Amino acid sequence: MGFVEAVKSAFSRIFDFKGRSSRSEYWWFYLFTVIVAFVLGILMGAGGDSIVGMLGMLLYGLFILAILIPSLSLSFRRMHDKDMSAWLLLVGLVPIIGLILIYWFVTRGTVGPNKYGPDPLGGEAEVFA
């Protein structure tokens, strides 16, 4: 999944907390949020206390609100891809121990279908005789 496709998918599946999402979908959307936040941060910093700075701050706030639910639903689906409950996202609230979320998000999901749905990459589980 490419950059544009991942951003479109995240916003089109905004309230879809079921199913699975691939690593590429998660990380491309994460890159999108970092780039937009960086640009809006520059706009806020360059504008200072002027109208441009206030506009940047308003746009930044609206952007954060706009990505809140898609980011959360994408994180749920990413945990489901690992065949884990989304409740484990609460581990992120614990200092230092929450870093395990990064490991879970960068490792490959379950190959083949799991209890949350089919493999988003279309992989089939290996069968050993």
Description:
The chain is elongated, with a radius of gyration of 17 Å. It is 57% helix and 0% strand. It has helices at residues 3-12, 23-47, 51-81, 100-106. The protein starts with a helix and ends in a 23-residue tail after the last helix. It has 129 residues and is mainly alpha-helical.
Instruction: Quote the beta fraction.
Output: under 5%
Basic shape: elongated
**Uncertain stretches of 5 or more adjacent residues:** none
Structure class: mainly alpha
Terminal CA distance reads 33 Å
What is the count of β-strands?
Answer: 0
The oligomerization state is single chain
What's the topology here?
Blueprint: H1 3-12, H2 23-47, H3 51-81, H4 100-106
Helix pairs in contact: 1-2, 2-3
